[in-house]
């Protein structure tokens, strides 16, 4: 059995990207400025992180207008939802502890290493 840390998604694991994906997992879509304010990052920091998530296929970016004002909306893709679910499951498995197994050559339970 391998440690659950191997199931963590390197793209999502960054704290800012994790916060973005978690926010988008709870909504159909969210306006860029809303995500920026909730995650508490600058426009440029959010743009960089969203670009990474978009390149991985986890976030879809849609541009449009509200009246005459340009707007950008972010949405989690199907792949992004699956990756987030798997990443959270790995975090839960790590937090719950790795099942005990006997360490090589010591003959004692893993809790007594």
Task: Describe what this molecule looks like in 3D.
By secondary structure, the protein is of the alpha+beta class. The chain has a single domain (8-90), classed as Arc Repressor Mutant, subunit A (Orthogonal Bundle), CATH 1.10.10. The chain is 49% helix and 16% strand. It contains 5 helices and 3 strands, in the order ααβααββα. The chain has helices at 10-13, 15-25, 32-39, 43-55, 78-96; strands at 30-31, 59-66, 69-76. It has a 3-stranded antiparallel sheet. A hairpin with a 2-residue loop joins strand 2 and strand 3. The radius of gyration is 19 Å and the shape is elongated.
- For this structure, the CATH topology is Arc Repressor Mutant, subunit A
What separation lies between the terminal Cα atoms?
18 Å
CATH superfamily label: Winged helix-like DNA-binding domain superfamily/Winged helix DNA-binding domain
- Which stretches of 5+ consecutive residues score pLDDT under 50? none
Q: Which class of secondary structure composition applies to the elements?
A: alpha+beta
Count of β-strands: 3
Number of helices: 5
The global form is elongated
Q: What is the percent of helical residues?
A: 40-55%
SS strand fraction: 15-25%
- Mean pLDDT over the residues: 90
Look at the structure and give the CATH class: Mainly Alpha
Pfam family, one: HTH_34
Protein name: Transcriptional regulator
Give a brief outline of the structure.
This protein has 113 residues and is an alpha+beta fold. It is built from five helices and three strands, in the order ααβααββα.
